[in-house]
Amino acid sequence: MKVGRNDPCPCGSGKKYKQCCINATSKQHSDVFDDIAQTVAMNPNLTLEELNLVAQQKMTERNNRPSADFCGLTPTQMANWLYAPFSELLGVNISTPDDVSVSPVMRYLTLIIDEAMQQDGSFKATSKGNLPAKLAKQASDLLPEFAVNQNRTNISISEFAGINEDKFNALHYTRILAEISGIIYLRSGRFHIKKAAQKQYQNQGIQAFFKPMLKAAITQYNWAYMDSFEHDVELRTFWVFMLWRLQSHGSIDQLIDDVAKAFPDLLRQLTPDEHFSSIRLLSLLIESRFIERFLQFWGFVVADPKRIFEKAHIPRKVSTQPLLRHTFHFTIKDL
Q1: At what angle are helices 169-180 and 210-219 packed, to 10 degrees?
Q2: Tens of pLDDT, residue by residue, the chain (335 residues)
Q3: Cα separation, 218 vs 222, whole angstroms
Q4: What are the residue ranges of helices labelled H in 92-156?
């Protein structure tokens, strides 16, 4: 289906197509037209039907040609990763690991479900509609068991600990995902576990909710929810590409370069100021929304701690955890 100039851009930015990715698409079409023009110049007697076949062939060839800008992906593959449903992604197999106990999100979800199951399927929420402080304490006590703990020198400022849900980002994130996934719901001041979810938990264990929670995190959860960045850039659209690149080299700096090269229009959506360039703003968004509050919350990676007070730039890397490799298996190689 053709995208109109005033339609929302398919990249998910929220902007009109004419204000976003139209230039990149126009360049691709221009390259194809140049190829066709060259063919016509060499074969001036082609019929209209033959020209249409040539055009289709040239477009197919270009769409299936590896691109250096896409780190070896073809435009066809990239389009699949950007726009295909969660269950129809090509070149990546998504599995439920046998052991998800190393994932903060899944451990916190286990605490929530167990608390409800011990009280006939529900438990009392706080007056603000949050999880009780008892659960926050239990979840905080799990921090030493997670790989991310190696970079946590002060538990009071950790994303993985807090005296209540308001001050415990990873726990709050888990609760929101559980609601989005239809596992729990809040009614009459109590958190309830749906009957179907109770049966799933009894029959399959916590693994039953791994993929539904992951899908909710990727396709429904608002990645900008927990930060105060004024730039409304939708990074969820690019999650497969970013994960593929990060799993390939583990370098945060290289990941930013890969994304900026593949999707230069993202930089145009970010307005630089006296403190931050566009590329630096993109880096802050990716580090916060994708690496720290998605991959680390799930236990997929552990990122080097930020060195805020260092004058010189120190490259940051991530350590990919076994859970990442057990969940995502890519069958595509880069150039």
Answers
A1: 100
A2: 445 656 665 444 455 554 455 444 544 555 656 666 676 677 777 677 766 676 667 666 777 788 899 999 998 899 999 999 999 999 999 999 999 999 999 999 999 999 999 999 999 999 999 999 999 999 999 999 999 877 665 555 579 999 999 999 999 999 999 999 999 999 999 999 999 999 999 999 999 999 999 999 999 999 999 887 877 788 999 999 999 999 999 999 999 999 999 999 899 888 888 888 999 999 999 999 999 999 999 999 998 877 544 555 678 899 999 999 999 999 987 65
A3: 9
A4: 104-117, 133-140
Separation between Cα atoms, residue 242 and residue 300, nearest integer Å? 13
Cα–Cα dist 298/290, whole Å = 11
- List CB contacts of 8: < 8 A, sequence separation 6 or more: 14, 15, 16, 17
> β-pairing, 92-94 with 328-330?
antiparallel
Contact 330, 89 (CB under 8 A): no
1-8 long-range contacts (CB < 8 A, ≥24 apart) are none
The structure tokens listed for 226 are 């927990």
Closest CA to 302 of 239, 242, 252, 259: 252
- This prediction has a pTM of 0.82
SS3 label, residue 194: coil
Provide the token pair at 53. 């076949």
Contact between 95 and 314 (Cβ < 8 Å): no
Q: Which residues pair with 317 in a beta bridge?
A: 251
Distance, in Å, from the CA atom of 83 to the CA atom of 6, rounded to the nearest integer, reads: 19
Using CB atoms within 10 A of its CB, is residue 284 exposed (0-12), middle (13-18) or buried (19+)?
middle
- Measured in whole angstroms, the distance separating CA 3 from the mean position of its chain's CA atoms is 24
End-to-end CA distance of the chain: 30
Residue 16 bridge partners (DSSP): 8
- Using CA of residue 207, residue 213, residue 218, residue 223, what is the dihedral sign? negative
